[in-house]
Amino acid sequence: MAAPMLRYIFRSQWLGTQGLSGVLSLGLREAHSAAQGLLAVQKARGLFKEFFPERGTKTELPELFDRGTGGKFPQTIYCGFDPTADSLHVGHLLALLGLFHFQRAGHNVIALVGGATARLGDPSGRTKEREALDAERVQSNARALSQGLKALATNHQQLFANGRTWGSFTVLDNSAWYQKQDLVDFLAAVGGHFRMGTLLSRLSVQTRLRSPEGMSLAEFLYQVLQAYDFYYLFQHYGCRVQLGGSDQLGNIMSGYEFIHKLTGEDVFGISVPLITSTTGAKLGKSAGNAVWLNRDKTSPFELYQFFLRQQDDLVERYLKLFTFLPLPEIDHIMQLHVTEPEKRGPQKRLAAEVTKLVHGQEGLASAKRCTQALYHSSIDALEVMSDQELKELFKEASFSELVLDPGTSVLDTCRKANAIPDGPRGYRMITEGGVSINHKQVTNPESVLVVGQHILKNGLSLLKIGKRNFYIIKWLQL
Ligand SMILES: Nc1ncnc2c1ncn2[C@@H]1O[C@H](COP(=O)(O)OP(=O)(O)OP(=O)(O)O)[C@@H](O)[C@H]1O
Ligand SMILES: N[C@@H](Cc1ccc(O)cc1)C(=O)O
After folding, report:
1. Which domains does the chain have, with CATH numbers?
2. Which of 49, 74, 178, 372 could form a disulfide with 378 if both were Cys (CB 3.0 to 4.6 A apart)?
3. Which interval of the chain is the signal sequence (predicted)?
4. ipTM value for the complex
Protein backbone atom coordinates (compact mmCIF):
# COMPACT_ATOMS: atom_id res chain seq x y z
CA MET A 1 0.00 0.00 0.00
CA ALA A 2 1.33 3.43 -0.83
CA ALA A 3 1.63 5.70 2.19
CA PRO A 4 -1.52 7.82 2.42
CA MET A 5 -0.74 11.46 1.67
CA LEU A 6 -1.37 13.96 4.41
CA ARG A 7 -3.21 16.78 2.72
CA TYR A 8 -4.77 18.76 5.53
CA ILE A 9 -4.54 18.44 9.24
CA PHE A 10 -6.99 20.19 11.44
CA ARG A 11 -8.85 19.29 14.51
CA SER A 12 -12.56 19.55 14.47
CA GLN A 13 -13.64 21.99 17.22
CA TRP A 14 -16.58 19.90 18.33
CA LEU A 15 -14.96 16.50 18.18
CA GLY A 16 -13.31 16.12 21.52
CA THR A 17 -11.43 13.09 22.70
CA GLN A 18 -14.28 12.10 25.01
CA GLY A 19 -15.77 9.25 23.07
CA LEU A 20 -19.19 10.09 21.70
CA SER A 21 -19.21 13.84 22.32
CA GLY A 22 -19.86 14.61 18.63
CA VAL A 23 -22.93 12.42 18.29
CA LEU A 24 -26.29 14.05 18.11
CA SER A 25 -29.64 12.47 17.99
CA LEU A 26 -31.16 14.07 14.95
CA GLY A 27 -34.59 15.56 15.56
CA LEU A 28 -37.19 14.99 12.91
CA ARG A 29 -37.45 18.64 12.05
CA GLU A 30 -33.69 18.98 11.93
CA ALA A 31 -33.10 15.97 9.73
CA HIS A 32 -33.88 17.86 6.59
CA SER A 33 -35.76 20.96 5.70
CA ALA A 34 -37.82 18.82 3.33
CA ALA A 35 -39.58 16.62 5.86
CA GLN A 36 -39.56 13.66 3.49
CA GLY A 37 -35.76 13.39 3.32
CA LEU A 38 -34.45 9.84 3.41
CA LEU A 39 -32.88 10.30 6.84
CA ALA A 40 -36.02 11.85 8.32
CA VAL A 41 -38.15 9.00 7.04
CA GLN A 42 -35.85 6.36 8.49
CA LYS A 43 -35.58 8.33 11.72
CA ALA A 44 -39.38 8.27 11.93
CA ARG A 45 -39.39 4.51 11.41
CA GLY A 46 -36.86 4.19 14.24
CA LEU A 47 -34.31 2.54 11.95
CA PHE A 48 -31.72 5.31 12.06
CA LYS A 49 -30.84 6.20 15.61
CA GLU A 50 -27.75 8.39 15.80
CA PHE A 51 -25.98 10.47 13.20
CA PHE A 52 -22.35 11.42 13.40
CA PRO A 53 -21.22 14.17 13.06
CA GLU A 54 -24.47 15.97 12.54
CA ARG A 55 -23.15 19.49 12.44
CA GLY A 56 -20.05 21.53 12.06
CA THR A 57 -19.03 20.18 8.68
CA LYS A 58 -18.93 21.78 5.25
CA THR A 59 -21.69 19.48 4.11
CA GLU A 60 -24.69 18.69 6.28
CA LEU A 61 -25.41 14.98 6.33
CA PRO A 62 -29.02 15.11 5.05
CA GLU A 63 -27.95 17.12 2.01
CA LEU A 64 -25.87 14.23 0.75
CA PHE A 65 -28.83 12.06 -0.01
CA ASP A 66 -31.39 14.25 -1.66
CA ARG A 67 -31.29 15.04 -5.32
CA GLY A 68 -31.20 18.68 -6.20
CA THR A 69 -29.84 20.05 -2.92
CA GLY A 70 -26.25 20.20 -3.99
CA GLY A 71 -25.28 16.74 -2.76
CA LYS A 72 -23.51 14.43 -5.19
CA PHE A 73 -25.90 11.76 -6.38
CA PRO A 74 -25.62 8.84 -5.89
CA GLN A 75 -23.67 8.43 -2.66
CA THR A 76 -21.95 5.22 -1.48
CA ILE A 77 -22.71 3.80 1.96
CA TYR A 78 -21.09 0.81 3.65
CA CYS A 79 -21.59 -1.50 6.59
CA GLY A 80 -19.18 -4.20 7.80
CA PHE A 81 -19.95 -7.72 9.05
CA ASP A 82 -17.26 -9.82 10.70
CA PRO A 83 -17.27 -13.52 9.71
CA THR A 84 -17.02 -14.82 13.27
CA ALA A 85 -19.76 -17.34 12.36
CA ASP A 86 -20.86 -18.94 9.09
CA SER A 87 -24.20 -17.15 8.93
CA LEU A 88 -25.75 -13.73 9.32
CA HIS A 89 -28.34 -13.29 12.07
CA VAL A 90 -31.44 -11.19 12.76
CA GLY A 91 -29.34 -8.42 14.39
CA HIS A 92 -27.39 -8.02 11.14
CA LEU A 93 -30.63 -7.80 9.23
CA LEU A 94 -31.32 -4.39 10.70
CA ALA A 95 -28.04 -2.94 9.41
CA LEU A 96 -28.74 -4.61 6.07
CA LEU A 97 -32.20 -3.08 5.92
CA GLY A 98 -30.53 0.27 6.48
CA LEU A 99 -28.37 -0.42 3.41
CA PHE A 100 -31.41 -1.55 1.40
CA HIS A 101 -33.24 1.69 2.15
CA PHE A 102 -30.31 3.65 0.70
CA GLN A 103 -30.21 1.34 -2.30
CA ARG A 104 -33.93 1.91 -2.91
CA ALA A 105 -33.31 5.66 -2.92
CA GLY A 106 -30.80 5.17 -5.75
CA HIS A 107 -27.55 5.10 -3.74
CA ASN A 108 -24.84 2.47 -4.07
CA VAL A 109 -24.19 0.27 -1.07
CA ILE A 110 -21.32 -1.95 0.02
CA ALA A 111 -21.62 -4.86 2.42
CA LEU A 112 -18.10 -5.43 3.69
CA VAL A 113 -17.15 -8.85 5.00
CA GLY A 114 -14.42 -8.45 7.62
CA GLY A 115 -12.21 -11.36 6.57
CA ALA A 116 -9.23 -9.49 8.08
CA THR A 117 -10.88 -7.76 11.05
CA ALA A 118 -12.52 -10.99 12.23
CA ARG A 119 -9.04 -12.35 12.95
CA LEU A 120 -8.56 -9.61 15.59
CA GLY A 121 -12.06 -9.52 17.05
CA ASP A 122 -13.97 -6.30 17.68
CA PRO A 123 -13.96 -5.46 21.41
CA SER A 124 -16.98 -3.09 21.03
CA GLY A 125 -19.76 -4.00 23.42
CA ARG A 126 -17.88 -7.02 24.77
CA THR A 127 -16.75 -7.63 28.30
CA LYS A 128 -14.44 -10.51 27.31
CA GLU A 129 -12.03 -11.19 24.47
CA ARG A 130 -13.47 -13.21 21.59
CA GLU A 131 -12.30 -16.74 21.07
CA ALA A 132 -9.52 -16.57 18.47
CA LEU A 133 -10.48 -18.07 15.10
CA ASP A 134 -7.90 -19.62 12.81
CA ALA A 135 -7.40 -18.28 9.30
CA GLU A 136 -9.13 -21.22 7.52
CA ARG A 137 -12.21 -20.97 9.69
CA VAL A 138 -12.49 -17.22 9.11
CA GLN A 139 -12.05 -17.75 5.38
CA SER A 140 -14.80 -20.34 5.15
CA ASN A 141 -17.08 -18.20 7.34
CA ALA A 142 -16.31 -15.23 5.07
CA ARG A 143 -17.35 -17.23 2.00
CA ALA A 144 -20.59 -18.26 3.71
CA LEU A 145 -21.32 -14.67 4.80
CA SER A 146 -20.68 -13.30 1.29
CA GLN A 147 -23.07 -15.88 -0.12
CA GLY A 148 -25.68 -15.01 2.50
CA LEU A 149 -25.36 -11.28 1.76
CA LYS A 150 -25.66 -11.84 -1.99
CA ALA A 151 -28.67 -14.13 -1.56
CA LEU A 152 -30.44 -11.51 0.54
CA ALA A 153 -29.63 -8.73 -1.92
CA THR A 154 -30.99 -10.91 -4.75
CA ASN A 155 -34.22 -11.68 -2.88
CA HIS A 156 -34.61 -7.99 -2.13
CA GLN A 157 -34.15 -7.03 -5.77
CA GLN A 158 -36.28 -9.83 -7.22
CA LEU A 159 -39.17 -9.65 -4.79
CA PHE A 160 -39.45 -5.97 -4.07
CA ALA A 161 -38.02 -3.89 -6.95
CA ASN A 162 -40.97 -4.35 -9.37
CA GLY A 163 -38.87 -3.11 -12.28
CA ARG A 164 -37.62 -0.01 -10.45
CA THR A 165 -33.96 0.91 -10.86
CA TRP A 166 -32.08 0.89 -7.59
CA GLY A 167 -28.50 1.60 -6.66
CA SER A 168 -25.93 -1.20 -6.74
CA PHE A 169 -25.23 -3.74 -3.98
CA THR A 170 -21.58 -4.81 -3.80
CA VAL A 171 -20.01 -7.35 -1.46
CA LEU A 172 -16.31 -6.84 -0.64
CA ASP A 173 -13.93 -8.51 1.81
CA ASN A 174 -11.35 -6.39 3.66
CA SER A 175 -8.80 -9.22 3.50
CA ALA A 176 -8.39 -8.09 -0.14
CA TRP A 177 -6.49 -5.00 1.02
CA TYR A 178 -4.81 -6.40 4.12
CA GLN A 179 -3.55 -9.67 2.60
CA LYS A 180 -0.55 -8.21 0.88
CA GLN A 181 -0.04 -5.44 3.40
CA ASP A 182 3.42 -5.07 4.88
CA LEU A 183 3.14 -4.45 8.63
CA VAL A 184 5.92 -1.88 8.86
CA ASP A 185 4.62 0.06 5.86
CA PHE A 186 1.14 0.06 7.39
CA LEU A 187 2.26 1.28 10.80
CA ALA A 188 4.48 3.92 9.27
CA ALA A 189 1.81 5.22 6.91
CA VAL A 190 -1.28 4.92 9.08
CA GLY A 191 -0.16 4.57 12.69
CA GLY A 192 1.25 8.09 12.91
CA HIS A 193 -2.18 9.63 12.33
CA PHE A 194 -3.83 8.06 15.35
CA ARG A 195 -3.42 9.66 18.77
CA MET A 196 -3.20 7.29 21.73
CA GLY A 197 -5.33 9.56 23.92
CA THR A 198 -8.20 9.41 21.46
CA LEU A 199 -7.95 5.68 20.92
CA LEU A 200 -7.82 5.07 24.66
CA SER A 201 -10.85 7.26 25.29
CA ARG A 202 -13.21 4.98 23.35
CA LEU A 203 -15.85 3.36 25.47
CA SER A 204 -15.00 -0.09 24.08
CA VAL A 205 -11.39 0.34 25.17
CA GLN A 206 -12.17 1.91 28.55
CA THR A 207 -14.59 -0.86 29.48
CA ARG A 208 -12.10 -3.56 28.62
CA LEU A 209 -9.15 -1.88 30.28
CA ARG A 210 -11.13 -1.77 33.52
CA SER A 211 -12.08 -5.45 33.27
CA PRO A 212 -9.99 -8.06 35.12
CA GLU A 213 -9.05 -9.68 31.79
CA GLY A 214 -7.77 -6.44 30.24
CA MET A 215 -7.34 -6.07 26.50
CA SER A 216 -4.95 -7.48 23.92
CA LEU A 217 -3.01 -5.33 21.45
CA ALA A 218 -4.84 -7.07 18.58
CA GLU A 219 -8.20 -6.00 19.96
CA PHE A 220 -6.93 -2.52 20.73
CA LEU A 221 -5.80 -2.08 17.12
CA TYR A 222 -9.17 -3.24 15.79
CA GLN A 223 -10.53 0.31 15.52
CA VAL A 224 -7.49 1.36 13.48
CA LEU A 225 -8.26 -1.32 10.89
CA GLN A 226 -11.94 -0.38 10.74
CA ALA A 227 -10.91 3.27 10.36
CA TYR A 228 -8.56 2.33 7.56
CA ASP A 229 -11.36 0.36 5.82
CA PHE A 230 -13.49 3.48 5.79
CA TYR A 231 -10.58 5.47 4.35
CA TYR A 232 -9.95 2.75 1.72
CA LEU A 233 -13.62 2.70 0.66
CA PHE A 234 -13.68 6.50 0.62
CA GLN A 235 -10.66 6.60 -1.70
CA HIS A 236 -11.67 3.73 -3.99
CA TYR A 237 -15.47 3.92 -3.98
CA GLY A 238 -16.18 7.49 -2.89
CA CYS A 239 -17.88 6.08 0.22
CA ARG A 240 -18.82 8.85 2.66
CA VAL A 241 -21.15 7.07 5.05
CA GLN A 242 -20.69 4.10 7.34
CA LEU A 243 -23.67 2.36 8.89
CA GLY A 244 -23.53 0.08 11.92
CA GLY A 245 -25.21 -0.98 15.13
CA SER A 246 -24.96 1.64 17.87
CA ASP A 247 -22.07 -0.32 19.40
CA GLN A 248 -20.04 0.69 16.33
CA LEU A 249 -20.00 4.47 16.83
CA GLY A 250 -16.54 4.55 18.45
CA ASN A 251 -15.01 2.68 15.51
CA ILE A 252 -16.86 4.86 13.03
CA MET A 253 -15.52 7.99 14.77
CA SER A 254 -11.97 6.69 14.44
CA GLY A 255 -12.62 6.40 10.71
CA TYR A 256 -14.07 9.90 10.56
CA GLU A 257 -11.04 11.38 12.32
CA PHE A 258 -8.57 9.49 10.17
CA ILE A 259 -10.20 10.45 6.87
CA HIS A 260 -10.70 14.02 7.96
CA LYS A 261 -7.05 14.35 8.93
CA LEU A 262 -5.78 12.85 5.71
CA THR A 263 -8.12 14.46 3.23
CA GLY A 264 -9.92 17.32 4.96
CA GLU A 265 -13.16 15.78 3.68
CA ASP A 266 -16.31 15.10 5.63
CA VAL A 267 -17.59 11.60 6.14
CA PHE A 268 -20.46 10.40 8.34
CA GLY A 269 -21.71 7.60 10.53
CA ILE A 270 -25.28 6.40 11.05
CA SER A 271 -26.29 3.88 13.66
CA VAL A 272 -29.21 1.48 13.84
CA PRO A 273 -30.63 0.48 17.23
CA LEU A 274 -29.48 -2.77 18.77
CA ILE A 275 -32.09 -5.51 18.78
CA THR A 276 -32.21 -7.23 22.13
CA SER A 277 -33.81 -10.36 23.52
CA THR A 278 -36.57 -10.22 26.14
CA THR A 279 -33.83 -10.24 28.81
CA GLY A 280 -32.24 -7.12 27.29
CA ALA A 281 -29.14 -8.90 25.90
CA LYS A 282 -28.01 -7.90 22.38
CA LEU A 283 -29.33 -10.51 19.99
CA GLY A 284 -26.31 -12.13 18.38
CA LYS A 285 -23.45 -14.58 18.44
CA SER A 286 -21.81 -13.31 21.60
CA ALA A 287 -24.87 -13.74 23.79
CA GLY A 288 -25.52 -17.14 22.19
CA ASN A 289 -29.11 -16.15 21.34
CA ALA A 290 -28.75 -15.53 17.61
CA VAL A 291 -31.66 -16.18 15.29
CA TRP A 292 -29.77 -17.11 12.12
CA LEU A 293 -30.57 -16.26 8.54
CA ASN A 294 -29.04 -19.44 7.05
CA ARG A 295 -31.66 -22.10 6.56
CA ASP A 296 -29.52 -24.92 7.94
CA LYS A 297 -29.15 -23.08 11.29
CA THR A 298 -32.62 -21.53 11.66
CA SER A 299 -35.28 -22.90 9.32
CA PRO A 300 -37.75 -20.57 7.57
CA PHE A 301 -40.39 -21.99 9.94
CA GLU A 302 -38.32 -21.06 13.03
CA LEU A 303 -37.60 -17.57 11.68
CA TYR A 304 -41.31 -17.12 10.94
CA GLN A 305 -42.23 -18.33 14.44
CA PHE A 306 -39.65 -15.99 16.04
CA PHE A 307 -41.43 -12.98 14.57
CA LEU A 308 -44.89 -14.47 15.08
CA ARG A 309 -44.15 -14.78 18.82
CA GLN A 310 -43.37 -11.06 19.28
CA GLN A 311 -45.45 -9.34 21.94
CA ASP A 312 -47.98 -6.64 21.12
CA ASP A 313 -45.80 -3.93 22.68
CA LEU A 314 -42.95 -4.63 20.22
CA VAL A 315 -44.70 -5.62 17.05
CA GLU A 316 -45.40 -2.12 15.72
CA ARG A 317 -41.76 -1.14 16.25
CA TYR A 318 -40.58 -4.28 14.46
CA LEU A 319 -42.95 -3.72 11.54
CA LYS A 320 -41.31 -0.32 11.09
CA LEU A 321 -37.78 -1.66 11.50
CA PHE A 322 -37.85 -5.00 9.70
CA THR A 323 -40.29 -4.43 6.83
CA PHE A 324 -40.64 -1.96 3.98
CA LEU A 325 -44.38 -1.45 4.58
CA PRO A 326 -45.33 2.23 4.37
CA LEU A 327 -46.11 3.85 7.74
CA PRO A 328 -49.82 4.48 6.93
CA GLU A 329 -50.21 0.77 6.13
CA ILE A 330 -48.60 -0.13 9.46
CA ASP A 331 -51.01 2.27 11.21
CA HIS A 332 -53.91 0.54 9.49
CA ILE A 333 -52.66 -2.93 10.50
CA MET A 334 -52.33 -1.75 14.11
CA GLN A 335 -55.83 -0.22 14.12
CA LEU A 336 -57.32 -3.52 12.91
CA HIS A 337 -55.38 -5.28 15.64
CA VAL A 338 -57.21 -3.27 18.31
CA THR A 339 -60.55 -4.62 17.10
CA GLU A 340 -59.44 -8.22 16.50
CA PRO A 341 -56.36 -8.89 18.66
CA GLU A 342 -56.91 -12.67 18.63
CA LYS A 343 -56.04 -12.78 14.93
CA ARG A 344 -52.48 -11.56 15.62
CA GLY A 345 -52.57 -9.70 12.30
CA PRO A 346 -49.45 -7.53 12.86
CA GLN A 347 -47.39 -10.52 14.03
CA LYS A 348 -48.44 -12.58 10.99
CA ARG A 349 -47.63 -9.76 8.59
CA LEU A 350 -44.26 -9.12 10.25
CA ALA A 351 -43.33 -12.81 10.16
CA ALA A 352 -44.40 -13.12 6.51
CA GLU A 353 -42.53 -10.01 5.32
CA VAL A 354 -39.25 -10.94 7.03
CA THR A 355 -39.40 -14.61 6.01
CA LYS A 356 -40.06 -13.59 2.40
CA LEU A 357 -37.09 -11.21 2.38
CA VAL A 358 -34.74 -13.76 3.93
CA HIS A 359 -35.89 -17.03 2.34
CA GLY A 360 -37.91 -15.91 -0.69
CA GLN A 361 -41.49 -16.86 -1.59
CA GLU A 362 -40.71 -20.57 -1.34
CA GLY A 363 -39.25 -20.13 2.17
CA LEU A 364 -42.39 -18.28 3.25
CA ALA A 365 -44.60 -21.01 1.76
CA SER A 366 -42.53 -23.62 3.62
CA ALA A 367 -42.86 -21.71 6.92
CA LYS A 368 -46.64 -21.53 6.50
CA ARG A 369 -46.87 -25.22 5.57
CA CYS A 370 -44.86 -26.20 8.63
CA THR A 371 -47.03 -23.98 10.85
CA GLN A 372 -50.17 -25.65 9.48
CA ALA A 373 -48.71 -29.12 9.89
CA LEU A 374 -47.51 -28.59 13.45
CA TYR A 375 -50.00 -26.24 15.08
CA HIS A 376 -53.12 -26.93 13.06
CA SER A 377 -52.51 -30.67 12.60
CA SER A 378 -53.04 -30.24 8.88
CA ILE A 379 -52.64 -33.47 6.99
CA ASP A 380 -52.82 -31.62 3.67
CA ALA A 381 -49.75 -29.61 4.69
CA LEU A 382 -47.93 -32.66 6.02
CA GLU A 383 -48.59 -34.52 2.81
CA VAL A 384 -46.82 -32.04 0.57
CA MET A 385 -43.80 -31.50 2.77
CA SER A 386 -40.36 -32.44 1.54
CA ASP A 387 -37.94 -34.55 3.63
CA GLN A 388 -35.90 -31.38 4.29
CA GLU A 389 -38.92 -29.51 5.63
CA LEU A 390 -39.91 -32.39 7.86
CA LYS A 391 -36.41 -32.64 9.29
CA GLU A 392 -36.37 -28.86 9.84
CA LEU A 393 -39.76 -28.91 11.49
CA PHE A 394 -39.22 -31.89 13.73
CA LYS A 395 -35.58 -31.10 14.47
CA GLU A 396 -35.34 -33.36 17.47
CA ALA A 397 -37.28 -36.14 15.74
CA SER A 398 -35.55 -39.34 14.83
CA PHE A 399 -35.77 -40.17 11.15
CA SER A 400 -35.92 -43.80 10.02
CA GLU A 401 -36.27 -45.45 6.68
CA LEU A 402 -38.32 -48.66 6.87
CA VAL A 403 -39.45 -51.24 4.37
CA LEU A 404 -43.22 -51.67 4.33
CA ASP A 405 -43.90 -55.40 4.64
CA PRO A 406 -47.45 -56.56 3.95
CA GLY A 407 -49.52 -56.51 7.12
CA THR A 408 -47.26 -54.09 9.05
CA SER A 409 -49.22 -53.03 12.15
CA VAL A 410 -49.17 -49.92 14.34
CA LEU A 411 -47.27 -51.90 16.97
CA ASP A 412 -44.66 -53.12 14.42
CA THR A 413 -44.19 -49.56 13.23
CA CYS A 414 -43.67 -48.16 16.72
CA ARG A 415 -41.19 -50.91 17.55
CA LYS A 416 -39.23 -50.66 14.31
CA ALA A 417 -38.92 -46.91 14.81
CA ASN A 418 -37.72 -47.52 18.40
CA ALA A 419 -40.51 -45.23 19.54
CA ILE A 420 -41.88 -47.38 22.38
CA PRO A 421 -40.31 -49.71 24.89
CA ASP A 422 -40.38 -53.48 24.28
CA GLY A 423 -42.97 -55.65 26.04
CA PRO A 424 -46.36 -54.84 27.57
CA ARG A 425 -45.39 -51.27 28.53
CA GLY A 426 -45.00 -50.28 24.89
CA TYR A 427 -48.25 -52.06 23.98
CA ARG A 428 -50.09 -50.19 26.75
CA MET A 429 -48.77 -46.83 25.55
CA ILE A 430 -50.76 -47.39 22.37
CA THR A 431 -53.95 -48.72 24.00
CA GLU A 432 -53.92 -45.89 26.55
CA GLY A 433 -53.96 -43.26 23.79
CA GLY A 434 -50.36 -42.03 23.94
CA VAL A 435 -49.62 -42.65 20.26
CA SER A 436 -50.78 -40.87 17.12
CA ILE A 437 -49.91 -41.31 13.47
CA ASN A 438 -50.26 -38.30 11.20
CA HIS A 439 -52.03 -36.39 13.97
CA LYS A 440 -54.70 -39.11 14.48
CA GLN A 441 -54.71 -41.11 17.69
CA VAL A 442 -54.20 -44.86 17.14
CA THR A 443 -55.37 -47.05 20.03
CA ASN A 444 -55.38 -50.49 18.41
CA PRO A 445 -51.82 -51.86 18.26
CA GLU A 446 -52.84 -54.58 15.81
CA SER A 447 -54.34 -52.23 13.15
CA VAL A 448 -52.62 -52.67 9.83
CA LEU A 449 -51.20 -49.52 8.27
CA VAL A 450 -53.32 -48.08 5.49
CA VAL A 451 -51.75 -46.11 2.65
CA GLY A 452 -53.44 -42.71 2.40
CA GLN A 453 -54.27 -42.69 6.13
CA HIS A 454 -51.25 -43.84 8.12
CA ILE A 455 -48.90 -43.43 5.20
CA LEU A 456 -49.11 -40.11 3.37
CA LYS A 457 -48.86 -39.52 -0.37
CA ASN A 458 -45.23 -38.50 0.04
CA GLY A 459 -44.44 -41.93 1.57
CA LEU A 460 -44.05 -40.58 5.11
CA SER A 461 -45.62 -41.23 8.49
CA LEU A 462 -45.37 -38.85 11.40
CA LEU A 463 -45.44 -40.77 14.63
CA LYS A 464 -46.04 -38.88 17.87
CA ILE A 465 -45.50 -40.47 21.27
CA GLY A 466 -46.79 -38.53 24.23
CA LYS A 467 -46.94 -34.77 23.88
CA ARG A 468 -43.78 -33.92 22.02
CA ASN A 469 -41.75 -36.93 20.87
CA PHE A 470 -41.83 -37.10 17.10
CA TYR A 471 -40.57 -39.86 14.83
CA ILE A 472 -40.52 -39.50 11.07
CA ILE A 473 -40.73 -42.68 9.05
CA LYS A 474 -39.94 -42.82 5.40
CA TRP A 475 -41.40 -45.97 3.82
CA LEU A 476 -39.32 -47.66 1.17
CA GLN A 477 -40.56 -49.87 -1.67
CA LEU A 478 -44.14 -48.63 -1.43
N1 LIG B 1 -28.60 -7.34 17.73
C2 LIG B 1 -28.20 -6.44 16.85
N3 LIG B 1 -28.98 -5.37 16.59
C4 LIG B 1 -28.61 -4.43 15.68
N5 LIG B 1 -27.44 -4.48 15.00
C6 LIG B 1 -26.62 -5.52 15.22
C7 LIG B 1 -26.96 -6.57 16.16
N8 LIG B 1 -25.95 -7.50 16.15
C9 LIG B 1 -25.03 -7.05 15.26
N10 LIG B 1 -25.41 -5.86 14.72
C11 LIG B 1 -24.68 -5.02 13.79
O12 LIG B 1 -24.31 -5.76 12.63
C13 LIG B 1 -23.01 -5.34 12.18
C14 LIG B 1 -22.09 -6.54 12.07
O15 LIG B 1 -21.93 -7.15 13.34
P16 LIG B 1 -20.91 -8.35 13.59
O17 LIG B 1 -21.08 -9.42 12.60
O18 LIG B 1 -19.56 -7.91 13.66
O19 LIG B 1 -21.47 -8.90 14.94
P20 LIG B 1 -21.22 -8.33 16.34
O21 LIG B 1 -21.63 -6.89 16.45
O22 LIG B 1 -19.85 -8.60 16.70
O23 LIG B 1 -22.24 -9.14 17.20
P24 LIG B 1 -22.15 -10.53 17.86
O25 LIG B 1 -20.79 -11.12 17.71
O26 LIG B 1 -22.54 -10.30 19.26
O27 LIG B 1 -23.21 -11.27 17.11
C28 LIG B 1 -22.53 -4.30 13.19
O29 LIG B 1 -22.83 -3.03 12.69
C30 LIG B 1 -23.34 -4.60 14.42
O31 LIG B 1 -23.50 -3.47 15.25
N1 LIG C 1 -16.67 -4.02 13.64
C2 LIG C 1 -17.89 -4.48 13.05
C3 LIG C 1 -17.68 -5.17 11.72
C4 LIG C 1 -16.93 -4.31 10.74
C5 LIG C 1 -15.73 -4.76 10.20
C6 LIG C 1 -14.99 -3.96 9.32
C7 LIG C 1 -15.48 -2.68 9.01
O8 LIG C 1 -14.75 -1.86 8.16
C9 LIG C 1 -16.67 -2.22 9.54
C10 LIG C 1 -17.39 -3.03 10.42
C11 LIG C 1 -18.58 -5.39 14.09
O12 LIG C 1 -17.93 -6.13 14.75
O13 LIG C 1 -19.75 -5.39 14.23
Report:
1. 28-272 (3.40.50.620), 300-376 (1.10.240.10), 394-476 (3.10.290.10)
2. 372
3. none
4. 0.94
